């Protein structure tokens, strides 16, 4: 069963009830990431400092789950990882991601290269996000992030519930587990699948919408579980060390129906 266009099922429903393959990636990208907002800037700063504290590690295998039309979690993993898997379920998002990583094609490509000297790769939008990452830490050491991300990222079309266990050394999951279902049990299982895919000792970051009532992308309504900081704290208590879970203020300009964001980070227990 698919969510009814326009009307939808609000925040309720299971993951399989929603039209993920029809996710309007371009509209989502334009609405959320065309310009950098203060909440994303705050998240990026914290993630940058956290991952930079693992500067003694390199050549890791990184995982970003539910990547959608957002490259900044993968950019945050870039200095630590020589391979980044973008684990995404929606066909439309997979197509969007592959194209975005590749850059423009054909004549426009060639013309851009001649005019700007810039290689192929993601659009200029992400430069503002990369600049925040470069303010401190390891990121300035990445030579050409456009080329490097293109070379290191691999887009894999599959569900979070199909993630293999203990395969990755560092992980990010942004606005996915609580925003892919309206069912609390399914949300918890999604978080466990993400954590289960990491190896003991792996640093990870989970960003979530707080108290989300669901969201509209294009003509469809998508679900959410209205989580709070304590929900994540409880779930991470026995799974991670060095845990921090905190509220990120949002000015409400993104949309209505949520009370901010939650940023959780830690290291998977040995
Ligand atoms: C609200 S979007 C978040 C996208 C992006 N990570 C961001 O930070 O903006 C939710 C994402 O979860 C993905 N998703 C939905 N069901 C999924 C599943 N079963 N497994 C993995 N990803 C899924 C959607 O396709 C979408 O990309």
Automatic annotation (TrEMBL):
SUPFAM superfamilies: S-adenosyl-L-methionine-dependent methyltransferases (SSF53335). Coiled coil: none annotated. One of its GO terms (molecular function) is methyltransferase activity. The keyword Amino-acid biosynthesis does not apply. NCBIfam families: SCO2525_fam. InterPro entries: NNMT_TEMT_trans, SAM-dependent_MTases_sf. This is SCO2525 family SAM-dependent methyltransferase. It comes from the Bacteria. The lineage of its organism: Bacteria, Bacillati, Actinomycetota, Actinomycetes, Streptosporangiales. One of its GO terms (biological process) is methylation. Keywords: Methyltransferase, S-adenosyl-L-methionine, Transferase.
């Amino acid at each position: 069963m698919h969510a009814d266009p326009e009307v939808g099922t609000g925040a309720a429903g299971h993951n399989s009830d929603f039209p993920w393959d029809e996710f309007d990636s371009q509209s989502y990208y334009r609405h959320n990431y065309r310009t950098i907002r203060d909440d994303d800037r705050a998240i990026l700063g914290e993630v940058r400092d956290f991952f930079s504290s693992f500067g003694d590690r390199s050549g890791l295998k990184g995982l970003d789950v539910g990547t959608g039309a957002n490259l900044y979690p993968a950019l945050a993993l870039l200095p630590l990882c020589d391979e980044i898997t973008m684990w995404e379920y929606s066909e439309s998002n997979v197509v969007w991601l592959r194209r975005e990583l590749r850059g423009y094609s054909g004549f426009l490509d060639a013309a851009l290269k001649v005019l700007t000297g810039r290689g192929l790769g993601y659009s200029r939008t992400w430069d503002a996000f990369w600049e925040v990452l470069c303010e401190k830490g390891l990121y300035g050491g990445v030579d050409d992030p456009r080329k490097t991300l293109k070379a290191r990222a691999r887009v894999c079309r599959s569900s979070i519930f199909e993630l293999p266990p203990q395969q990755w050394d560092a992980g990010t999951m942004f606005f996915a587990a609580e925003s892919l279902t309206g069912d609390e049990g399914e949300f918890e299982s999604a978080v466990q699948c993400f954590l289960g895919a990491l190896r003991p000792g792996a640093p990870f970051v989970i960003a979530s919408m707080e108290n989300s009532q669901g969201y509209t992308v294009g003509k469809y309504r998508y679900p959410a579980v209205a989580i709070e900081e304590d929900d994540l704290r409880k779930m991470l208590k026995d799974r991670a060390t060095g845990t921090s879970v905190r509220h990120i203020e949002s000015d409400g300009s993104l949309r209505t129906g949520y009370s901010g964001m939650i940023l959780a980070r830690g290291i998977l227990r040995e």
